[in-house]
Structure formats: structure tokens, C-alpha cells
Structure of Fmu (Sun):
Amino acid sequence: MARSTPADEVPGVPARRAALRMLDAVLHRGDPLDQAAPPVLRAIERGDDRALALAIAQESLRWMADLDALIDGATKQVLPEDAKVRSVLRLMLAQALRLNLPGHAIVATGLPLLVGGPRRLAHGVFSAVTKSGAKLPEAPTLPPAVAARWQVAWPERLGAIAQGLAEPPPLDLTLRDPAQTAHWAERLGGQSLAPGHVRLARAGAIEALEGFREGAWWVQDLAASVPARLLGEGKGRRALDLCAAPGGKTLQLAAAGWQVTALDKSARRTERLAENLKRSGLTAQVVVADALNWQPEHPFDAILLDAPCSATGTCRRHPDVLHRHANLAELTALQSAMLDRAATWLAPGGTLVYAVCSLEREEGELQALAFDKLTPAPVTEAELPDGLTPTNGHFRSDPGMLSAAGGIDGFFAARWVKG
Ligand SMILES: C[S@@+](CC[C@H](N)C(=O)[O-])C[C@H]1O[C@@H](n2cnc3c(N)ncnc32)[C@H](O)[C@@H]1O
């Protein structure tokens, strides 16, 4: 339902108000931006205004520590962390310093968000920062809690990871038919970094791209396409995609000839999985169930466990993950319980791949180290996209890798076989 806006409202204010609501939902309610955005954006009529609102929220979250430093440098008294004026200033400065929008438009659309509030203060701080010629650093400063964790986990990669976060990522597509890679790379004007992969520099409306309607491809970061690649061709054998929705990996497995059972606990997310299957013309048996109490009717030749995790590896496209507080102890307990159950569902000779889109070693490397129910089957360089190499027999990527080609999400995958 469209939210009514005052008839005399300055054009552009609804997009900024939406950005403010999204920021509030992420920072003060702990919601994922993916969840907060759709209801807020539905109220905005024009597609370009919706895209602008999202970009403002994302850039504010990506550069928040640096925007806050500029705000604090221009105020006599430190504004409370949860003050509305601080959030409005974050949005205004993100528009000036990241989206290069003109100052007068930013002021005209930003100050109405503070009706009855400290508008003069906001105007003064915004003018002081922009007139001083202040710039953002080359790479975003990570929020202190994240920086402290990754300094321990990735002491040598931290600078590259932060640099990899500086820009929103390009758009990666996975093709239904990898034999058509050169064809689709040319048709869409993209670059391919692996068979069945095409990277586009700028997205625009995804639905308008050639091949979307007939399901010739689906959106999937290059890193996220690796775990299913590690299972190879299915040749009609049975695969279980455990934690499958919204289904990027289900589509890959079905396209690679696996007879797929796709299980997920979320009915809402499995609806999207079913839509994605329909669009691509691929098939899978879709099961809505909790992996912790479901029992299969038969063993599987392959299981892909794409476990729920902190999702910190997706921070380039989802900078909100940097500001939410994942309960790592709870998540790692869930992941290892799922791994243990999955191991019992494999047929002899079957393969298990465990994957997480996380930069937390507890969810990746340490989880694999602790798992001893199956025999490790090391990942080889030939199985990975060009420019990536296995680490201790596992696949590990981070946002600082493949930087010349546009980067890659942080991901971890390990593989075992049942002897
Ligand atoms: C990382 S996402 C999966 C992404 C998906 N594999 C893809 O490629 O599109 C993790 C999924 O785990 C599901 N999940 C979380 N807890 C679960 C449980 N106990 N049983 C089954 N699915 C669960 C969530 O609903 C979510 O869809």
C-alpha cells in the first residue's frame, strides 16, 4: 500500500526518508537491510528513487565510521550514537561524498527529515564538512568490533579486505548452460572469470537484461557459485541441497544434472526458490523442513550444506552485516549440528560440501577442522575460478581478492567423502 506524502513535499524527500528508515531498522532494530528495504521502498513510486534510497542507505552503512568521524570533527558536543540528527547527517554526507549529488539538493531533501528538530545544527555541520573540502579515505574504516575480530583472524589481509569494501560490487551471473559462456558474455557485454560465469560492470534493472525472462542465468556472486562447482556433474544422481533458499545453488546443481532435493526451513524463502526454478525451467523437489529434525527417505550421493551464518563475507553488497551483531556461538553450534546430521545421510562414496558466506574463521576453517566424521577431499586449483588457489585444501575467498577484476565475496567451502 502506498504511503501518502504531503502534496507540498519537496520531490526527493520520500527517498531520503526511506533511507533514514532503513538505517534505523539496521542500526537500532538489528534488521538485515534485505528485510528492512522492501516494505519501506514499496512506498516510493519511481524505480530510480527506490534505487537512490537504497544506494544512500548502503553507502551510509559502508562508510559509517568515516562519516561519523567527519560529523564528530564538526560538532562541539558529540552527538549521541542513536540521535536522529546523526543519522540524517550520515545520509546527507554519503550523498555528497559518495554519490556526488549537489549540496543544495541534499540540504533541501535532508532538512525536512528533521521537522521540529535540530535543522540548523544539521545544516551547519553539513556545510562545515563540505566546505572544508573533507574527503573520505581510500578504504572504509571498519567498525571497531569487526576490525578487532578480523585483525586477529586475517592480520595480513585486513587492508586488502577493507579496500575491497570501498565500492559496491559488480553484478555476477551464473549461466544455466556453461557451454554458452562466451555467447552470454558477448551478448551482455560482460567478462567471464570461470565457465558458466559472466560479470557485468553495472546492473541497472536486472529484469530488463537479456536472458532474464527465459532463465538463461541467475544472479549469484562468483564466490557463491564455487561450492556447487565442487560437486561436479550429477549424471542423474541424487543431491541434497541443505539450506537451499532462495536457490542459487539448487539451480546450479539441477543444471549440472543432479536430481535435487532442496530443503529449507523458511516457507517464505522457499517460495522464491520455487519461482527461480520456474523461471529457469529447472526442477527440484522442494521441502520446507527444519534440517535438525527432518529425516530423508534415502541416502544421497552428494550433499551441499550452505549453512546459516553471520554472512560477513557479503559485506561488499550488504554493508549492514558490518553493523549487526551475529551470535557466533549460536551459529557455530547450529552449523556443527547440521554437519553431523548431513554426514549420516550420505551414500557410501558420496560427497559432502560445507559452505558459509562468512569471514569468521569459527564458521569456516575452525568448523572444518573440528569435523572428523568423513574423509577430507581437498579442493584443487583447477576447480576454482582463475586467480584463486585453495588454502589448506579448502576454498577461502575474501573481498580483497581478484581486485583488478572487480573483487569477490568472502566465502569458505570444504569437501569430504564417505569412504
Ligand atoms: C546461506 S542461506 C542459503 C542460501 C542458498 N543456499 C542459496 O544459494 O541461495 C541459509 C539458509 O538456511 C536456512 N535455514 C536456517 N536454519 C535452518 C534449519 N534449521 N533448517 C533448514 N534450513 C535452515 C535459512 O532459511 C536460509 O535460507
